[in-house]
Amino acid sequence: MSLPSTSTIPVLKAGITLTRFESGAASPRFLLALGDSHFLVSAKTRALVLALLGKPLDAAQLEARYEAESGQFLAADQLLALARQTLPEVLYIDTPLPPRHMPFVVSVTLLPTRLASRVTRWLAWLFTPGLAVALLALFAALHIAVLPSAMHSAHGAWSAREAVGLVSLFLLSGLVHELGHTAACRYFRCPHGAIGFGLYFIFPAWYADVTKAWQLQPRQRAVVDLGGVYFQSIFLIAIDAWALATGSALALKLSWLITFTMLFTLNPVFKFDGYWLLSDLSGLHNLHKQVQSSVSSLVAAAIGRRAVGAPTVRSGILYGYTLLSVGYFGYFALFLGRELRLLPTATLDNIAAGWALLRAVPSGQGWELAVALGAFAGKLLWPAMVMLGTVFFLDKLRRSLIGIAAAVRTARALPLAPGSALEKS
Length: 425
Hints:
The chain is built from 14 helices and six strands. The chain is mainly alpha-helical and 425 residues long. Strand 1 (17-21) and strand 2 form a beta hairpin. Helix 6 (160-187) crosses helix 12. The radius of gyration is 27 Å and the shape is globular.
């Protein structure tokens, strides 16, 4: 969309809201919201939006309204140029609102907003600081005692009853995780949306609408980020106590499986809870894009296209994040490589055992057949997770390599820095 000339003032949609975004950055930023769309804007862009929302009739009114909001004067042609550079097209009145984007192939809402709010009203007290510390200490004590046995039992054989119970309780832990995010919002008196279940890429996943958490302070957003893992820790207190009291193989396997998913969601490489936690605590956003820019700067400095600047806190965080990402990719590659080496033999054995169970079911025994099918599916659950994780990992690796290649091309396209060794030669 091309904006009108200075003789015509663009008109913005009604319903735009602007709130200060707390990030700890030196320059103030603001959260611009319109429907389900959210954007971070500078103080200058905020003043421009407020001036346009006042519906100025001509250039003089636009200049006056902008000066009143920002405290500085800019000519109308400069303001329209600023609009072209910074305002998303969706804000303009003649641009239709985009349909709400859900990152799921298919999804279903299980707890509508009103019902989810009723549930979290009764759960928010679990975020009382003293209680949270006590619960986490209890979790740590129990989990340290259970985890070695849980890891040992992870590759053991599963009975039909274990398979059905494991899948059911594992899915319940996903719901508990999302309740943790929404209950944290409720604790900070921030509204939240619905909770649902969907298929993300090829992974079944729960989701919760906590979009309005952007309005919170950075540390409060960090609590919302950690709320899901915190609630799963509370859930694991019961599972670990069950495992210690009875030695149940189901409890041990479930403890390990939930632990694995908690650690996976805390990794900051993928856009899961760990990514948003690092982003909120550091005040840096679009980390993947910023890492690409930092890699481009490093390459540019290495080949003499840019002078080496003094290190900053921001650059330190980004370089540390880059090293962490490389390390995580390496660890995950080794983990998947080990599991893939074990997979053929273990999977064939599980298929043979599952098929034997199915063949042993007498004809006409519907319930026994259902139990046998559940056992067969349970035996294939971990191999399926490994295969899906491999596909997901390779896709992320492909995207990362494309980003690195783009950063190198950007660096090589820059002119030589004045005084560089290459320029002198």
